[in-house]
């Protein structure tokens, strides 16, 4: 029946995908060719499901070749096979993004905590953490739904792929290996309304005023820590308090202590050793005790 076909605007509306994006997919060969049925020219309603999943996979950053393979699987293969293909593609993409996060953290550490370059790299890395969180959420949903949602025949609106691609992503889970006793660490990206981007500028101003960084003595080998020393300033202490509280809401696996005493103002941060690279990237690595002694000694030479 001709009433079953959807024109471009109807297809875009049913799929929840902007028409401009639909045209892009058509030009890339990702949209099935339109059909003619009597005097009506358009797309079968099932194409809306494919288009919705395609847009979700595209938002994950999957490349064109992968998107082509997925759309073919969603249209022509059984649901379980398509489900497996998507899981493999998401895992591969997540590995790439995790690698880029590691690269950004190295750049953050090298650029110097609190510098303008550090702020730029840190801002870029936040987008990568958000991408990784989305990929992790989809991967977990695919694993959870694989047995219960896969069915005979092509994928449809209620299959596991469709459900997984809409999985909410509010947390980033650090890579860990439980078999090696590594702690499973998680950052809540939605804490405080997801204002981590806004905090970067505040951290830049604060970290630029740090006078020195020293490792914290810690008898627990599973923990690492650093103390940041600042000139005593009431407003600075208040800002540090707000930032420390916000960071705890995001990354509650760490502890954040503000100390005000006769030596001045300092912020002490302790985290599991699995987060040592992240701590060094954000706060800056402490000067090793031996090197610090040499520096202080040289500074006191006449």
Task: Compile the SSE list and pairings.
Elements: H1 8-15, H2 19-27, E1 35-37, E2 40-42, H3 46-59, H4 64-76, H5 79-111, H6 116-149, H7 160-164, E3 171-173, E4 186-188, H8 196-207, E5 212-215, E6 223-230, H9 234-250, E7 255-261, E8 264-272, H10 276-283, H11 289-299
Antiparallel strand pairs: 1-2, 3-4, 5-6, 6-8, 7-8
Characterize the structure shown.
This protein is of the alpha+beta class and 302 residues long. The protein has 2 domains: 168 residues, Multidrug-efflux Transporter Regulator, Chain: A, Domain 2 (Orthogonal Bundle), CATH 1.10.1660; 104 residues, Alpha-Beta Plaits (2-Layer Sandwich). It is built from 11 helices and 8 strands. The protein has a 4-stranded antiparallel sheet with strand order 5-6-8-7, covered by helices on one side. The longest helix has 34 residues. It starts with 7 loop residues before the first helix and ends with a helix. The relative contact order is 0.09. The C terminus is likely disordered.
Structure, briefly:
With 302 residues, the chain is of the alpha+beta class.
Order of H and E elements: HHEEHHHHHEEHEEHEEHH
What's the total count of β strands? 8
Structural class: alpha+beta
Whole-number count of domains: 2
Fraction of residues in H or I helices: 40-55%
Number of helices: 11
Low-confidence stretches: 291-302
Distance between the terminal alpha carbons, to the nearest Å? 95 Å
On the 0 to 100 scale, the average pLDDT is 86
**Name of the CATH class of the largest domain:** Mainly Alpha
By CATH, the topology of the largest domain is: Multidrug-efflux Transporter Regulator, Chain: A, Domain 2
Query: Quick one: overall form?
Result: elongated
Strand content: 5-15%
Outline the biggest β-sheet.
Answer: 4 strands, antiparallel
The neighbouring-strand order within the major sheet is 5-6-8-7
The CATH architecture of the largest domain is Orthogonal Bundle
